[in-house]
């Protein structure tokens, strides 16, 4: 009963405009002080240990940083050019290219809003110019941007892995096929709409443009290769080189290097529109590290990290309180004794997450919900990786549904349209994501095929 | 000593902003470089900085604990404004005041928890009382002996051995040092929350939250769009 | 239930397969049955409440009452337990048991009292084996390889003696890191090697029995001394009976896990006396580095017991 009070308190605070992190943390503290004998000191300990004690979560600042260097460093622009060269000539080509670009950027970045900002900024304006309606453009990008957390790397997957102790590497692999599938479904839908509505198609610019744009985007695209080879190795040639967390740090250093010394879109080798050769300014090798662009990118990434980790850390405090009161066991027992089967359970998880996703930031929601449902899932024989992907897809939907939808907010800002207009614009594509969610829920092999065939079946050691 | 608020434009305010911003950037940069160095050392040279991982995790905690207060100062913390936006302006003001009160309660409780947690590591006494500090306890066993796992002791901190550890030498960095960020960060949070609340009471600020994480980026884009049209 | 005193016991393994988890569950069952109405033990497994690092701080703070971290986690409290980490210090688990039951061993339970912790009993896991992604037969085979070790000075020194590179890494990442080749090898007991399925992703396991992985059940001195004498007495008795029962079963558990590794297709390499001696020769010099910490007399006592087994 007291638990219901706890959740009501969280919700109440959220709705009067208290920061999400504070709503979670304050409710936990009040609950702890009133109903248990655990000390306030343990709250301070949990807050600090949310960072210092969670090696897996360390991937978050690094992936955010890599993504920041990629956006500031001009990689997004080059990816868009490459995408347009590939598919721009089809019916609805620019829209399809937008989805394609989102998929590529998603493979570099761990976050959905970041994907919308990076790609949407360029593509929505371009689409408007060639005659698409603003609504259509916004709807497409708003949805395609959610792939940021499904296609690896993914901050939400990192959080799930950390909350349940499954392998981040496996989660990343598991996202590949669903990510490609969701992207393909979106592109197909656009193509059909384009044929019906006679949407504009672009010019076929020839293989030369594909090659040139590919060459131009090459250094950015290499990052995908570096991350994948680094984490999984190449059979027969090299073992893996780093853990997923380290991969994120390496990606940041690489992205910094590409942005400052190859593309020179930021840092000491950029002089407004001019690019200075390193040979003419060799001291840049040192000064790039301290250049104001580098500092600004680091600061932006740091700020975003802080924002997310403040929520995650307080969600961990709430999780600590729930564990302390043995709530997960009670819920698990209640659900198991209610005799739910696997499917009924998964449907319930979907419903809980879809509702939760309306009010909460995805990472915070996963920190709280994953430990509650994970033990039941294991008991019922649900694959933990499959469960993880279901959660991620739910989070995607949460991002494009009101009242709290991070992608909606971002798209409305990027496209300069009112929120409700974006909601309406996104709705038709939202239907596709729902179909996709059902598919993912009922066909586990879509998620588990790749990790199982490359890394063997998931082991549950707990 | 009185810390300045962030009243835009005062030289001191700008100075504090830039100190905090540079610290945030520097900590993240150092975290990245240490992690990267460890990958190179392991893969290329078969070596490792055995303290690397622990130091990076400590810096991660420092980054966030320092940054939370900055977030209150600059109003960058995420919240839900869907409901408050529906309220008339009077209602919005009431909600903002209640929200400030909640943040204050959070910061104050956190401050007490932070002190109680840290004090024994510094051979100081935690506070009495469950909800509110009611003076200091006596005879709490100190934890000044408690060291980190692998972080080397720094020469310039040797004075700590006499100050809090009965002259016993530390062969690793004592936990009191990395943990210092807990009370320090909490105190800064409390300060910034109080300042933000005052701004809300005075009507200089409407709320304590932003509704999404990329608000600033979006504003930048919106400004560009406006120029182009 | 209402009116019962709650004892929170936090640990980091499962409740029904790992030796520590089984022992904690047994302790909980017995206390809850025999002291019903007075005391209730709640077990928090799988690091759900605290991990091994945080749990001792929480205990000193009074937020948790019992835990059973591995002995190397107490390094900062007293260096005397480093004796249990030193390679080839104990011939077999019987020698470990006899040493811990001796006066020297029993005194060690009180080595941390001035820091606020009291040992209630040693719980066994077993002797450690090496595994790697290539065959390890001679100690030179380990040279140049990257081994995941617990972050302890002794274990780092031990790997350096082998010319191997010690790598810190959180336990949950080890399987993935071994599988993908981020690190080459690790050291652990049979129950962990089987439980974490390390054998699946290693060339084989070499039966070196070179080190010990044991736990100490600890409680807070202040909390313990605040208990009624009869409750303390009864808890002590149950703890010591559970300890005796589970420790006696450890050889069997170890062999079961070893067999399970074989049954699942894992490769185990046994060493003959000469081969084993080569490992001893390389690793034993580590003792000298830590003799000051653990006490020459304690080492002598351990060796005296070894001679009997
Ligand atoms: Na991604
Ligand atoms: Na939503």
From TrEMBL, chain A:
Similarity comment: Belongs to the TRAP transporter large permease family.
Membrane-topology annotation of the record: Multi-pass membrane protein
Places the protein is found: Cell inner membrane
NCBIfam families listed in its UniProt record: dctM (TIGR00786)
Record keywords: Cell inner membrane, Cell membrane, Membrane, Transmembrane, Transmembrane helix, Transport
Subunit description: The complex comprises the extracytoplasmic solute receptor protein and the two transmembrane proteins.
Transmembrane portions of the chain: 6-35, 55-76, 96-124, 136-160, 172-196, 217-235, 241-263, 304-322, 334-356, 363-382, 388-410, 422-445
A biological process from GO: C4-dicarboxylate transport
Entry protein name: TRAP transporter large permease protein
Annotated GO MF terms: transmembrane transporter activity
All copies of domain TRAP C4-dicarboxylate transport system permease DctM subunit, residue ranges: 7-444
Function of the protein: Part of the tripartite ATP-independent periplasmic (TRAP) transport system.
Automatic annotation (TrEMBL), chain B:
Superkingdom assignment: Bacteria
Main location: membrane
One GO term describing the cellular component: plasma membrane
Membrane-crossing residue ranges in chain numbering: 23-45, 51-72, 93-111, 176-194
Pfam families: DctQ
Membrane topology reported for the UniProt record: Multi-pass membrane protein
Location in or out of the cell: Cell inner membrane
GO molecular function terms listed in the Swiss-Prot or TrEMBL record: transmembrane transporter activity
Record's subunit section: The complex comprises the extracytoplasmic solute receptor protein and the two transmembrane proteins.
Function: Part of the tripartite ATP-independent periplasmic (TRAP) transport system.
Family assignment from sequence similarity: Belongs to the TRAP transporter small permease family.
Protein name as annotated: TRAP transporter small permease protein
Species classification: Bacteria, Pseudomonadati, Pseudomonadota, Alphaproteobacteria, Rhodobacterales
């Amino acid at each position: 009963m007291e638990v219901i009070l706890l959740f009501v308190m969280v919700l109440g605070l959220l709705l009067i405009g208290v920061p999400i992190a504070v709503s979670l943390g304050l409710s936990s503290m009040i609950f702890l002080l009133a109903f248990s004998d655990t000390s306030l000191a343990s709250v301070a300990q949990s807050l600090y240990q949310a960072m210092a004690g969670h090696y897996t979560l360390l991937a978050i600042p690094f992936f955010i940083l890599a993504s920041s260097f990629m956006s500031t460093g001009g990689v997004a622009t080059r990816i868009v050019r490459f995408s347009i060269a590939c598919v721009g000539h089809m019916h609805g080509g620019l829209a399809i290219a937008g989805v394609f670009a989102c998929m590529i950027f998603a493979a570099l970045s761990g976050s959905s809003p970041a994907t919308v900002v990076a790609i949407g900024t360029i593509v929505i304006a371009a689409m408007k110019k060639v005659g698409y309606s603003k609504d259509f453009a916004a709807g497409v990008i708003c949805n395609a941007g959610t792939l940021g957390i499904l296609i690896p790397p993914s901050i939400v997957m990192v959080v799930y892995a950390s909350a349940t102790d499954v392998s981040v590497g496996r989660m990343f692999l598991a996202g590949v096929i669903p990510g490609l599938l969701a992207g393909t479904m979106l592109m197909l839908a656009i193509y059909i709409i384009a044929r019906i509505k006679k949407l504009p198609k672009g010019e076929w610019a020839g293989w030369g443009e594909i090659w040139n744009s590919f060459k131009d985007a090459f250094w950015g695209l290499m990052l995908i290769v570096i991350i994948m080879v680094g984490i999984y190795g190449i059979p027969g040639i090299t073992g893996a080189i780093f853990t997923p967390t380290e991969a994120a740090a390496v990606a940041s250093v690489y992205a910094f290097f590409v942005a400052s010394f190859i593309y020179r879109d930021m840092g000491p080798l950029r002089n407004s529109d001019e690019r200075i050769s390193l040979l003419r300014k060799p001291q840049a090798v040192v000064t790039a590290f301290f250049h104001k662009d580098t500092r600004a990118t680091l600061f932006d990434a740091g700020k975003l990290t802080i924002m997310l980790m403040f929520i995650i850390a307080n969600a961990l405090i709430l999780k600590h309180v729930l564990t302390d009161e043995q709530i997960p066991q009670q819920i698990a027992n209640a659900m198991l004794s209610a005799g739910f089967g696997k499917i009924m359970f998964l449907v319930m998880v979907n419903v809980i997450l879809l509702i939760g996703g309306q009010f909460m930031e995805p990472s915070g929601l996963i920190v709280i919900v994953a430990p509650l449902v994970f033990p039941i899932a294991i008991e019922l024989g649900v694959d933990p990786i499959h469960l993880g992907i279901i959660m991620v897809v739910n989070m995607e939907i949460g991002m494009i549904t009101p009242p709290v939808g991070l992608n909606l907010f971002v798209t409305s800002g990027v496209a300069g349209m009112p929120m409700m207009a974006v909601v309406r614009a996104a709705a038709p594509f939202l239907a596709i994501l729902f179909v996709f969610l059902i598919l993912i829920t009922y066909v586990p092999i879509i998620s588990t095929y790749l990790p199982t065939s490359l890394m063997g079946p998931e082991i549950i050691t707990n | 000593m009185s810390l300045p608020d962030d009243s835009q434009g005062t030289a001191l305010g700008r100075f504090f902003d830039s100190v905090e911003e540079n610290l945030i950037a520097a900590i993240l940069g150092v975290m990245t470089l240490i992690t990267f160095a460890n990958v190179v050392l392991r893969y290329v040279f078969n070596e490792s900085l055995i303290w690397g991982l622990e130091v990076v995790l400590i810096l991660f905690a420092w980054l966030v604990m320092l940054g939370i207060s900055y977030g209150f100062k600059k109003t960058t913390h995420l919240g839900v404004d869907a409901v408050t936006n529906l309220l008339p302006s009077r209602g919005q003001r009431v909600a903002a005041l209640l929200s400030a009160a909640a943040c204050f309660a959070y910061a104050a409780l956190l401050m007490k928890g932070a002190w109680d947690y840290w004090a024994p590591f510094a051979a100081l006494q935690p506070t009495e009382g469950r909800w509110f500090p009611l003076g200091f306890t006596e005879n709490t066993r100190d934890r000044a002996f408690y060291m980190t796992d692998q972080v080397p002791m720094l020469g310039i901190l040797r004075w700590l051995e006499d100050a809090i550890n009965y002259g016993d030498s530390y062969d690793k960095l004592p936990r009191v040092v990395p943990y210092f960020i807990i009370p320090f960060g909490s105190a800064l949070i409390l300060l910034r929350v109080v300042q933000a609340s005052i701004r809300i009471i005075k009507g200089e600020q409407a709320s304590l939250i932003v509704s999404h994480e990329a608000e600033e980026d979006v504003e930048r884009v919106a400004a560009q769009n406006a120029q182009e049209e | 239930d209402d009116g019962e005193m709650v004892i929170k016991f936090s640990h980091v393994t499962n409740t029904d397969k790992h030796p520590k988890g089984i022992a904690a569950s047994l302790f909980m069952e017995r206390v809850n049955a025999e002291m019903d109405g007075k005391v209730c033990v709640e077990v928090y497994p799988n690091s759900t409440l605290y991990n091994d690092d945080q749990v001792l701080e929480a205990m000193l703070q009074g937020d948790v009452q019992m835990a059973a971290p591995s002995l190397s986690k107490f390094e900062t409290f007293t260096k005397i337990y480093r004796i249990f980490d030193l390679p080839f210090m104990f011939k077999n688990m019987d020698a470990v048991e006899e040493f811990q039951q001796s006066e020297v061993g029993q005194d060690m339970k009180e080595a941390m009292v001035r820091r606020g912790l009291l040992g209630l009993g040693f719980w066994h896991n077993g002797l450690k084996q090496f595994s790697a992604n290539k065959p390890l037969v001679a100690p030179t085979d380990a040279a140049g390889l990257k081994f995941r070790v617990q972050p302890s000075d002794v274990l780092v020194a031990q790997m350096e003696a082998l010319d191997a590179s010690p790598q810190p890494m959180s336990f949950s990442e080890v399987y993935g890191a071994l599988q993908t080749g981020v690190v080459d090898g690790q050291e652990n007991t049979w129950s962990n090697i089987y439980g974490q399925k390390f054998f699946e992703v290693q060339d084989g396991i070499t039966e070196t029995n070179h080190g010990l992985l044991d736990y100490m059940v600890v409680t807070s001195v202040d909390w313990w001394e605040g208990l009624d004498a009869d409750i303390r007495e009864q808890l002590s008795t149950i703890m010591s009976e559970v300890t005796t029962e589970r420790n006696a079963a450890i050889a069997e558990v170890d062999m079961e896990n070893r067999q399970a590794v074989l049954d699942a297709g894992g490769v185990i390499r046994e060493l003959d006396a000469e081969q084993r001696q080569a490992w001893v020769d390389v690793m034993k010099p580590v003792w000298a580095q830590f003799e000051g910490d653990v006490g020459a007399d304690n080492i002598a006592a351990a060796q005296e017991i070894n001679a009997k087994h």
